[in-house]
Design a protein that fits this description.
Blueprint lengths: L1 E6 L16 H17 L4 E5 L3 H8 L6 E2 L9 H7 L8 E6 L3 H11 L12 E7 L2 E8 L8
Parallel strand pairs: 1-4, 2-3, 2-4
Antiparallel strand pairs: 1-5, 5-6
Helix pairs in contact: 3-4
Amino acid sequence: MDLILWRHADAIDGIPDEDRQLSVRGTHQAAAMARWLRTQLRDDWRVIASPALRTRQTASALTDEFVIDQALSTRTTPEKLLEAVDWEHGEGTVIAVGHQPTLGAVAALILSGQPALWSVKKGAIWWLRREDDQIQVKAVLSPQWLIKP
């Protein structure tokens, strides 16, 4: 199974937090990452997003066909996210569009066995693969490397 942890792109400040929209910069970040992902993904992939507007807008840069799941919300845990994507038994590729600090904690939990405060930058992805009980890091990519000045 491949798991792509995709942090929502840059968003404007505001309240309520769930209604924050992507900034102009964030829209460019999401579009650039979506273009790159389209060149890398095989046929068997799906997207799960937090209910927050900024994550839905980020996911929409890649596809309009995604599932909204509370297990990716700002109040979730790494364990709930891993259960939602079926990390232990799932197949194919799942793109989880969510938030910090959860995404960093999920990466830490998968790679080190302990949740920790690892950083996933806005709009960035961490692409992890579980194959035959081995964990591989396929890519860690920030949108800043994809956007031409």
